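Re: beginner question about structure tokens

> Can someone show what the tokenized structure looks like for a real chain? I only ever see the sequence side.

Sure, here's an example I had lying around. Input first:
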Amino acid sequence: MGKNEKAPVVIDDVEYDYNTMTDYQKTLVNHVTDLDRKLSAARFNVDQMQVGRDAFFAMLKQNLEAGEEKVAA
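And the corresponding structure tokens:
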């Protein structure tokens, strides 16, 4: 594929040639592509934060169960 050629765009099992799309259609494709990338990155970040949160929560439980640093409520 040449530098200016893009892979076909498939929507609902219908293949569209990006190079024959209007500028508006290309803009919409680019927005959808960018948002897909951002959603993927957001999911990655949420997964990473969830694992971190779970690790800190486990450390807290372990510390509390060991009776360390008990403070009266």
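Each token stands for a local structural state, so reading them left to right follows the chain. The mean pLDDT is 91.
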